[in-house]
Specification:
Blueprint lengths: L1 H27 L7 E7 L1 E17 L4 E5 L3 E7 L6 E2 L4 E5 L2 H36 L5 H33 L2 E3 L4 E6 L6 E3 L5 E6 L4 E8 H6 L5 E5 L7 E9 L9 E9 L10 E18 L4 E4 L2 E7 L5 E12 L2 E6 L14 E5 L10 E4 L1
Parallel strand pairs: 1-21
Antiparallel strand pairs: 1-20, 2-11, 2-15, 3-10, 4-6, 4-9, 5-8, 6-7, 8-10, 11-14, 12-13, 12-15, 13-14, 15-19, 16-17, 17-18, 18-19
């Protein structure tokens, strides 16, 4: 009886042991990770210069752009041009109500006529007295009085003539003329509006768009770094896909004490492109010495915060290697990448290494990759 129980115990124990071993063997077999399919692009080396990025607007040259105001006050009767019209030097642009000026000119002309008559009469009187004096009939005092009266009337005549010239000049200023040849960039005021005869109430803006520049604000640090004649690249949101060449034309020698900013003017080589005056643009100015840089597609950079980011290296071992990098200058669709100072895997970030560009998210360090190049 005891022997029978012993045999049953052994059989049951053996059965549970066998089941446990089978369970352990099944749990050890984990499914293999599915490789993540990515498209990879090689890093490249290029000779580059550091760049300063500024924002500004397109403008004509300083001496080829003017906001033109009337030199007399009054109501605008007519504006003779429209935006986009070409104008020549001294072409009429607008007319101001000149009734009051016309009356002043007539009044001045009448005063001149009276002064002319008085001067003529005084001259005849002086000649008559001179003859009488020469015969010894008139006293010297009479001759002196006649000469003084003639001089006085001639002075009044000159004053009246100057008044006429001033009145006529004011009357001519009722017609606003262009001080330069160019194109009407903007009509600022319309017929019926009042102007005060000062630059505070311009009527028309005229500029010469044949030569353009980009005027940008810059910090004192940028002004010091930027030199005259430095090359520049300009991109205008109004002209997508178009990049213009330029060169630094002038750098402000001072900064505004309130804003701390100065002005940089970039001469544009527009070629056949005619960007509208006043549009905003971004200019990148090359500064410093040439150096060799490691360039990556902008799409390869992920988790970018400021100048810091990450790239995924498509390793030769078929695995992903996530590296922290610092971004440098941007050249079109390429960005300079520099190893982060604390990263110990810099040898992976060299020319010829491949970086994931599509997709770049959802990949962890050590993931198996199915690389497409």
């Amino acid at each position: 009886m005891l022997a029978t129980r012993a045999r049953l115990t052994f059989v049951v124990g053996l059965t549970f042991t066998t089941i446990g071993c089978r369970h352990q063997s099944a749990s050890d077999k984990e499914p293999a990770a599915t490789p993540k399919r990515v498209r990879c692009t090689a890093l490249s080396n290029s000779d580059v210069q550091d760049q300063i990025e500024l924002h500004g607007t397109v403008s004509p040259l300083p001496d080829r752009d003017a906001q033109i105001a009337a030199q007399v006050s009054g109501r605008i009767l007519r504006v003779l041009v429209r935006e986009g019209d070409r104008v020549r030097l001294q072409q009429p642009l607008a007319r101001i109500d000149d009734l009051a000026l016309t009356d002043q000119a007539k009044q001045a002309a009448a005063q001149l006529a009276r002064a002319d008559a008085e001067a003529t009469l005084a001259a005849v009187s002086r000649v008559r007295v001179q003859r009488v004096f020469d015969r010894g009939i008139a006293a010297r005092q009479e001759l002196d009085d006649a000469q003084a009266k003639e001089a006085t009337t001639r002075a009044g005549q000159s004053e009246a003539r100057a008044t006429v010239e001033i009145a006529n000049r004011q009357l001519s200023r009722a017609t606003v003329r262009s001080p330069l040849a160019g194109v009407v960039l903007k009509v600022i005021r319309r017929p019926g509006e009042l102007v005060d005869g000062s630059p505070a109430t311009p009527i028309v803006e005229v500029g010469d768009p044949s030569q353009l520049e980009l005027v940008a604000s810059a910090t004192a640090q940028a002004l010091v770094a930027i030199g005259a004649k430095n090359k520049a690249k300009i991109e205008l949101p109004a002209l997508p896909g178009v990049s213009l060449d330029g060169r630094v034309a002038a750098v402000s020698p001072a900064v505004d004490r309130t804003t701390g900013l100065g002005v940089v003017r970039i001469a544009l080589n527009v070629g056949g492109v005619r960007p509208p005056v006043g549009v905003s643009g971004v200019v990148r100015i090359a500064v410093g010495a040439h150096r060799n840089a490691l360039l990556a597609p902008a799409a390869a950079l992920r988790s970018a915060a400021g100048n810091d980011g990450e790239v995924v290296v498509c390793g030769t071992d078929g695995r992903a290697h996530v590296l922290r990098v610092t971004r440098g200058i941007a050249l079109g669709g390429l960005i300079e990448v520099l190893p982060a100072s604390s990263d110990v895997r810099d040898p992976l970030l060299v020319s010829g290494s491949f970086l994931a560009v599509e997709p770049v998210l959802g990949i962890s360090d050590g993931d198996t990759l199915d690389q497409v190049r």
